[in-house]
Amino acid sequence: MLGTDVIAAAPIPEEGLAKLADGPLELETERGQLSVSLESVGEPVRLGRDLLGEREARRADVKGKLIDNDTAIELDCSGVLHSRTTIDAEPALTRDATIILADGGLIFLATAKADAESPHGDEVSAAAISHPGGYVEFDEVLLSTEYDSSGRQRRATLELWPASEEIANLHGAGHVIAGCSAKVGGRAINTALFQWSFDGHLGMGRYEISSKLVAVPA
User: How far apart are CA 209 and CA 196, in angstroms?
Assistant: First the structure.
């Protein structure tokens, strides 16, 4: 079920989330504790391109409890497990999004630029959508983003053209529900939870933008 009640959104750590897998997960928070079990659903969606490395996303059932101050919140929802390999030439700018659709499908996309100031056409991109028995990749990805005065993503449009005739082109728009910013390992990371609509079909998921921090001369 898709809803609008959000507790938090957090960036993927510098080393990724490769250690997350099926099983229990417990985390201490500033206001309490998260204790859940994770169980993968369906086949993983995999992407791989120059500048992007190898990336994987898997939808998972999440069940457990969140203690928020004096409030206990029972959790029974969908989530996404991510993993990715490190690459030698770290891109100046990356954009990642995973979108869980109301019908249970998963859209996974990533883009990267070697130079943050290079034209949009120089961006490397990859995307796929889960499909019975696997997933279908897209030939073209167009992700346009509107930012607030602090440079954080607030609205976006997404157009996807498939490499196969199994599915039609996808056109969607999304807006931020919640978000956070962090500096991790020499990068500025803006992570947002977005609500999306694709031709009337609802979706929700993480949209993260990571950029290299510019060194200021002393």
Answer: 17
DSSP 8-state secondary structure symbol assigned to residue 117: T
- The domain locations on the chain are 23-212
The per-residue pLDDT for range 12-22, each reduced to its tens digit, is 455 544 455 67
Q: What is the pTM of this model?
A: 0.85
Q: Among candidates 77, 102, 99, 132, which has minimal Cα distance to 200?
A: 102
| Residues written for the chain | 218
Burial class (CB in 10 A: 0-12, 13-18, 19+), 28: exposed
In this structure, the strands spanning 106-113 and 134-147 are unpaired
C-alpha of 133 from chain center: 22
Give the pLDDT confidence of 165-218 residue by residue, as tens digits.
777 899 999 999 988 888 888 889 999 999 999 988 899 999 999 999 876 555
Q: How many CB atoms lie within 10 A of CB 108?
A: 27
The dihedral through the CA atoms of 185, 190, 193, 195 has a sign that is negative
End-to-end CA distance of the chain: 51
Assign 121 to helix, strand or coil: helix
